[in-house]
């Protein structure tokens, strides 16, 4: 519902990156030079963290494993291409008033956004869609849980998350809810003869 509801939003592409399981600091730290839209890959090497809602601290990825190259899903790739084209139009419209920072997540005048800006933007969209407020960082948990529950191997899951330890990824980020266990209930039907008629 959230993805469908924000499709026309200016920051649709960056928000899709959040829903891919990236940390908010990774999303706002992303630069166009980190993207290869021809090969459909993204290199995660830079973060921008805000301290005390005031100071922005820019640094390398959190760990060596955090520096990773990931393939871009089709919808995310398409959204990034459209966002880049929109940014080009905004730059022409702003003229000399445009700031060329190289970052992906910027305002219409090219000024880089930080994690607080991205978070507040997402919360506003959630309110407009009459959805409950969910932290962007929690989307990381949801993404990794979805991938794990749909058969992505542990070592791939850890690499996607930027972790060295697959057990840590599953313990901290992978959560199983009742719908995830529906297939197990169906399998159990066969185990106890659920396809038979009448009492056993």
From TrEMBL:
Keywords, sorted A to Z: DNA recombination
Protein name per Swiss-Prot or TrEMBL: Site-specific integrase
Coiled-coil ranges (or none): none
One of the Pfam families matching this protein, by short name: Phage_integrase
Domain (Tyr recombinase) ranges: 1-186
